[in-house]
Amino acid sequence: MNTTIISSLSLALLLGASATYAADNIYTAPSFFDKETGAYYGPDCDKTNYSGAYYTGDYTSPFTTVMGKTEEDIQKKLDQLWNHYFKGDDNSKVYYDQGNEAYIMDTGNNDVRSEGMSYGMMISVQTNHKEEFQKLWNYAKNHMWHRNGDEWDGYFSWQIRLAGGADNKPAPDGEMYFMMSLLFAANRWNDTQYMDDAQYILDKMWNNWQYKLFNEQTYIVTFQPTQGNKDFSDPSYDLPAFLELFSRWSKKDQDKWQKTVSATRDHLYKSSHSTTGLFTDYNNFDGTPHSGFDSNNPSDTYMFDAIRCAMNFGMDYYMFGADTTREKEMAKKILDFFHKDNYSHAHFQWDGSLVNNHQNDPYTLGQKGANAVATYAVLNDPSYEEKVKKNLSLAWDGEPLKGQQRYYDGLVHFLAMLHLTGHFKIWKPMPTVEKKTVEGEYNGETFDKDTTFNAFEGCKLYELTVKPAAKPVATDTSSKIDPNQPQDSTIAIASVKAMNAAKVWANNGAIYIENAAIGSKYTITDLNGRVLTSSRTTSSTHEVRLGNTGALLVIVGNKAYKITK
Questions:
Q1: Where would I find the H helices in 404-518?
Q2: Which end of the chain, C or N, has fewer beta carbons within 10 A?
Q3: 189, 181 in Cβ contact below 8 A?
Q4: Structure confidence at residue 409 (pLDDT)
């Protein structure tokens, strides 16, 4: 038994600024606003209210909960990646500053791609680098973006060759990340021009006079909205979390965007092999591989694009929690597959056999990052504890890439690290905040001094101040007790329990709460405040069966106990 009484402070204050916890649809934190820009990333409500960060505002990092990394460790890691890829030397960086413009170079092909530009913009907005974001957007607007009614109105040229020339047709992963990064930028930096630009693109994805980004029968994203390419897809373009936000924030066609959400989740699930969990680079709308498209790299295999699928469904899991059963299934399959392969190989047939001429291609940095994001779906499954730790360690220990082939895998890994560190947030429109004051207790926690924090309750956001309850005036009641008369023993027992702290310990896979009055409210969380279970005691020695192991907090009444299970 390892039991320590910590304090009777509120859990949010006990755990610091990163703490977020929920009970009965109440979410609290010291603040749900960015300390640098004032932008909002906290809880939200809709008719579904699933368990993801969109609804809770909780972006707790598994590097912290599983590996014990501090926020200082995490910031140092992100600074290392930023300084390497955006500020490093010519053997490290992929960001090239051109004064009023900047571009992300595909260093392996000596060109600029919509994929890389939109990735660079997403990384910039999530790390709060507005100057770099604006320069990248200036380049994309001036050299890649089609506007004013031409054939590709609203779309982006997928490739600009630095030696001269361009391919004016789009690659939809670029459009998806451009739209999302602009919406986040508009909200994080309160910039109406970014919002106007985002809305223009969102509109044209459905209302370009000739080309539609999504197949209008299936509502699945096309490989490319051109003749011959619009009848199949690329599952790594499936980004259901982004589509959820487009369906909420687009000023037009919200019904169509909503249809893409369920269609995309279905397609992503069908694209995952029933045994290996692998995806193919290109596939049909029914999820089966699409072959014969790329003569240089087999399009019906798990090669380059497909590594992003694990990051896509892992992101959807922690952001929205709307398709948890299928996403857990996908995560388990793909994590099992690479664990069995001992993280040795990069490229496979859909069924898991090696690809001709690629048998010796090693497991890549991009795969380390993307597959680690998939662990979000199994963080609370004790049987996957070893695999979670392994994948997180591979992502954390991966060194930034140098040399000619640093661009793609380097940026995929950087995006994955933003997800895994809790620094890839949904930056939302500014909400209305009401002020509210309560006395003594809030959400099961008592306070011994004036305390102000954010609380999301009943779909409203409050700046809430809790004031200590007024202390009762002591009175002498001893003369009212007749020692010659029998007393109610139940009152005496309750009084003893009220005066003494509960005993809490762990043994044989369970947690026990003893010496607490029957009906006492308890909450069990991890050390970052993520609620694992909450209820009330039903016996004098109450047993709680919980699969989670490690250091936990058990809050009983107004006291918190740290135990190791």
A1: 407-420, 489-499
A2: N
A3: no
A4: 98
**Secondary structure letter of residue 353 according to DSSP:** P
The rounded distance, in Å, linking the Cα atoms of 323 and 528 is: 24
Q: What is the pTM of this model?
A: 0.82
Token pair listed for 550: 């490690």
Tokens of 457: 């309750």
Phi and psi at 131, nearest 5°, equal: -60, -45
Which residues have a Cβ under 8 Å from the Cβ of 176 and sit 6 or more positions away? Answer: 118, 221, 237, 239, 242
Strand arrangement of the beta sheet that strand 111-113 belongs to: 95-97, 102-106, 111-113, 159-161, 166-167
For 417-428, the pLDDT digits (tens) are 999 999 999 999
Strands 433-439 and 460-467, how do they pair? parallel
Helix segments in 250-323, DSSP class H: 254-271, 308-319
Widest pairwise Cα distance in the chain: 104
Listed in sequence order, the DSSP H helices in 381-488 are: 385-397, 407-420
- Residue from 520, 440, 422 nearest 56 by CA: 422
Q: In angstroms, rounded to a whole number, what is the distance separating the alpha carbons of residues 110 and 125?
A: 25
Residue 1: band (very low, low, confident or very high) from pLDDT cuts 50, 70, 90: very low
User: Residue 164 contacts by C-beta under 8 Å, 6 or more apart in sequence?
Assistant: none
State how far the Cα of 329 lies from the Cα of 324, in Å rounded to an integer.
8
Q: Which of 121, 110, 109 is nearest to 145 (CA)?
A: 121
Exposure b/e, 156-182, CB count within 10 A at least 16 = b: bbbbbeeeeeeeebbbbbbbbbbbbbb
Q: First CA to last CA across the chain, in angstroms? A: 9
β-pairing, 451-457 vs 445-446, is unpaired
- pLDDT, tens digit (0-9, with 9 covering 90-100), for 377-386: 999 999 999 9
Cα atoms found within 13 Å of the Cα of residue 453, Cβ hemisphere only:
28
Residue with tokens 């709460």: 513
Provide the token pair at 289.
């591989």
